[in-house]
Structures are given as structure tokens and as C-alpha cells.
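Input/output pair, single chain:
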Amino acid sequence: MPLPEYFSPLEHQTDLSERKGYFEYEPSQDSTQMEWYLNFAHHDIFCAYGGSLFAQDEMQVAEHPSLSSLREALLNSNIKPLTVESEQPTPILIRGVERRCAISTDRNPEQGRPFGLYGNNFGRATSDAIGQATKPLNPPTITNIIAIEAPSYGEGSYSIAQIEYILKTAFTAFSAARIESPQLESAQTPNLIIHTGFWGCGAYGGNRVLMALLQLLSARLSQVNCLVFHTSDAMGSENLATAQQIVDRDLVPDNSPVKVSALIEKIHAMEFQWGFSDGN
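Output:
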């Protein structure tokens, strides 16, 4: 989707809620809410679900096993399940997926996972340890998923083109979630909630502050009601607070409408630096 020409800060406010843990996919008790969870995707969606790595994408497929069946069905129908095509973001939204189990990835020597199960530790774990970490959910809960891929393995400062691409990807994904969230009653629009985190900041080496602030900005541009940001630890909380401060204080200090292209130039001038891959 093309980015809007202007950002009007007073036109729409998105509530920001911080969660210090990881995705728990807890079912909403409010029938007027429509919740979506990000999948930090590879451009070839769910392509590594059968491997020994256990990062966010593989964890999500393991807990929602029908996602692997979906991938195989698409491939069998000669449909390429791509979240990027011709160097343009093409987010994939999947509604109504059953979460059949919850898998603990924390360190627990007593249950055979002294280093946890995240990332490459999964491939080194025993079947028994994985079994003990897995809790079946009966009945299953239901999850709605947004799959988008972040740029990867950059160096130095982010370019204007990279910043615009990230913003366009998140804006397209969040806008699509708003469009795909069904009306619950004849004249009622559901309260749209998107759960996210430091998208593209693990194996891809993205900058945490930049990736957070571009998602905050995208949520407001796409008129998302609430963005739930899962920060995982104290450093993540600091990164999110910095990103929010930049959006509120530095980008639009007087709340006047501003061109989105001017915002991108402002962000570029801050010279955000690429980080390093975490090896997962």
C-alpha cells in the first residue's frame, strides 16, 4: 500500500501497551476486540518449520501446527507463499489458527533444558526435554497472524530507502489487519489490537529503537487502536521508551500535520545504525 502523504498526530491516537514477556497468545475476553500477532517471517513463509532452529517463526508454527499444513497446501497448489515479491512487501494475514500447545523456552536444568530451547539450543535438546517443555492446550485457543519480513544484515547507517521500506511494510500489514478485521455487529467496528516486538532485531541485526519507532508510527498511520509491544527484558523497555519519546517529542513536537516524506528524512538524519545478528 502507498504511504499516506501526511501524518496528522491529532487525527488518530494509538494506545501503546508494554508487555515485559513474550507472546502468550492469551484469548481475549472482550468480544469487541480483534487481536493479531506478528510473525517475524522469512520472505518464504514458514520455510524452516521442520528444521533444528527454534526462533520466533518456528516457535509460532510449532504451537500452531496447522501453519505448516497451510504452507504445504499452498506449495501443492503452486502458490508461492511469499511476504516479499519483486522487492516489495506483500504481508500475509492468516485468521483463525488453532494454538494447540504452549512450549516453554526458558532455562530449566531440572527439565533438561539448561540453556533453554530458543534458537540453536532446540537442536541440541533431547526429545524428552522438548516433551516436558510442551503443554497441550485442550481446547485450543485461536490466533490471528500477520507475517512480514524485515530487511536484514545491513551495515552502517540506515538509508532513506531502507527506512521507507520498513515503514511501508508495517503500514501495509497493520492497514490490512484493520481491513481484514470483520465487523462484529452491523454498525460496529472491532477494537483492533496488534501484538508485536523487536521485529527484525534478532538474526537480522536490526536496530531496536528504529524498528520500534517505525512500528509506532505505522500503527498511528494505519489507525490501529492499540499496539501491544512485547519488550522481553529491561533493555527492551528502555529501547521502547526511547522510540516513543522520539515519536512524541522529536518528530512532531507541536502536533501539526507533517508530510510523511519529511518524517522519513528526519528519521534518516538521526543516523540509526545497524546492529549485529544474534546467530539465531
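The chain has a mean pLDDT of 92. The longest strand covers residues 134-148.
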